[in-house]
Every structure is written in structure tokens, then in C-alpha cells.
Specification:
254 residues, alpha/beta, seven-stranded mixed sheet, 8 helices
């Protein structure tokens, strides 16, 4: 009887391990690409990624069983825009972020962008903040990665300032955004934060210059646009909307 019981336990354990492996194999995996840039032009102030724009999509996807890796141009800890840590910018997601030791540890050890491969993921997502305007907008590894995701029929998602990373991305010789419906941090929102003359370029103008059909709603209102595999959000309040659209696309791909 003891032998039978032991055999049963071993068999059940093996079955559980196999089932867990199968579940993990079937889980979707998303790459988050975050800025490494921390200087706000020549102002002497700091910038980086905007906490809400990482936290809200991260938890929206994580809570639905999506595996998430994080990469940055330089690897290691990405800078956080200090303004996004102000209590006035706090949300339930940012409060969860502040207490999430696992995520904070993951951020300290981000992958180097040059080392990640599109083939290992089902989609890519870029949080915003002003940082991407300076580094990811001109990062060749980033442009190549986005092109690879897009041409392999995988969703590419951006929010607030991060559509700036599409500035130099081309597919088959044409700008990826050409003829596409997009949104992103608006000129009026940039003026409202007093950085029109600080940023290297205005995102709304850059998208239109590359042939995109740009649209927006009122400043600071949630708004996201989906055009095929391309998903963009206007501002921090749009972060969760972008994640929801991304999740829907991931779930539609079996």
C-alpha cells in the first residue's frame, strides 16, 4: 500500500510540474522598453520615465497572467521622473508600484536593449516620460526591434511621449506611422507643462511630419488609438487604455 501511495504522489507531482510548464509555455510574454535618459534638456532638472505609464500597464497585464521583462538602452536602473513621484500624481497603481519589492528589484536589473530579441516576446510596450525624446527616439536598437515586432505581426504599443521612439522607424522603406492613425502627448499638453522650448522636438508635429494622421482629445483626458498592430495613447491617463487594447490583441492571438 505504501509503495502504491508513493507511486501515486510521484505521478501527481510529475503531472503538476508538467502542467505548470505547459501553462508557462502558453502564457504571453511582453517586453517593456524604458528610457535610460535622466536630463531634462539644459534645465538642470531631472527626467526619466513616468511612473504611472509603467505601473498601470504593468499591473493590467501582470494581473491577467502576462509575463513581463524590462529592457533599457543602458541596462540596469532606469531613471524615474521625479515629478511623477509627487503625491499629486499618485494613483492606486503608483502606490502599488512604490510597495512592489519584486518590480523594484526587476527595475534595478533591466536587460540591456541590445541583448533582447523580438523572437522571445509576443509584443512590445514603451512607457513614456520625457526621457525617450532624447535617447530611444534615436536608438537604432530600438528602431530595429520595433520593426521586427511589426513585420512579424506582433503588437507594438506606446503611451504619452513614447510614440517619439517611432520617429525613425521604417518598414519597407516607409515610416511605420505613415498613413496610420495615432495619438501621443499633444502640443497643448507640452505647452501646459512649460516644456515646448526644452524638448528636442514636439511629438505631435513629428508624427504628422512622418505622414501620420494624428488625433487627440482634451488635455489630460484618457484617449488611445488602435490602428492594426500599432497602439498609441495620448497622456498618462491613457496608460491603462493602451494596456487594455494590447491585452485584447494578445488574447486574440492563440
Amino acid at each position: 500500500m505504501k509503495k502504491i501511495t508513493l507511486f501515486t504522489i510521484i505521478a501527481l507531482t510529475a503531472t503538476c510540474i508538467s502542467a505548470t510548464a505547459q501553462n508557462k509555455k502558453g502564457m504571453k510574454k511582453v517586453l517593456f522598453v524604458v528610457t535610460s535618459h535622466d536630463k531634462l534638456g539644459n534645465t538642470g532638472e531631472k527626467t526619466g520615465f513616468w511612473t504611472e505609464e509603467l505601473a498601470a500597464p504593468y499591473y493590467e497585464l501582470l494581473d491577467k497572467g502576462v509575463i513581463i521583462d524590462i529592457a533599457t538602452p543602458l541596462g540596469g536602473q532606469p531613471p524615474i521622473d521625479p515629478k511623477s513621484e509627487d503625491p499629486s500624481a499618485a494613483t492606486e497603481d503608483t502606490k502599488r508600484f512604490d510597495a512592489d519589492t519584486e518590480l523594484l528589484a526587476k527595475l534595478k536589473n533591466t536587460h540591456k536593449l541590445a541583448d533582447v530579441k523580438e523572437a522571445d516576446y509576443d509584443a512590445v510596450f514603451y512607457p513614456g516620460g520625457h526621457g525617450p525624446l532624447w535617447d530611444l527616439a534615436i536608438d537604432k536598437n530600438s528602431s530595429t526591434l520595433i520593426e521586427a515586432f511589426y513585420t512579424n505581426n506582433k503588437p507594438v504599443a506606446f503611451v504619452c511621449h513614447s510614440p517619439a521612439v517611432l520617429k525613425n522607424v521604417k518598414v519597407n522603406g516607409e515610416f511605420l506611422v505613415k498613413g496610420k492613425n495615432v495619438t501621443g502627448f499633444s502640443n497643448t499638453e507640452e505647452a501646459a507643462v512649460g516644456l515646448t522650448d526644452v524638448v528636442p522636438f514636439l511629438l505631435e508635429d513629428a508624427l504628422q511630419a512622418n505622414g501620420a494622421t494624428y488625433s487627440k482629445v482634451g488635455d489630460w483626458q484618457p484617449y488611445a488609438v488602435e490602428d492594426g498592430l500599432l497602439i498609441t495613447g495620448q497622456n498618462p491617463a491613457s496608460s491603462k487604455l493602451v494596456a487594455e487594447k494590447l491585452l485584447n490583441q494578445l488574447n486574440s492571438k492563440k
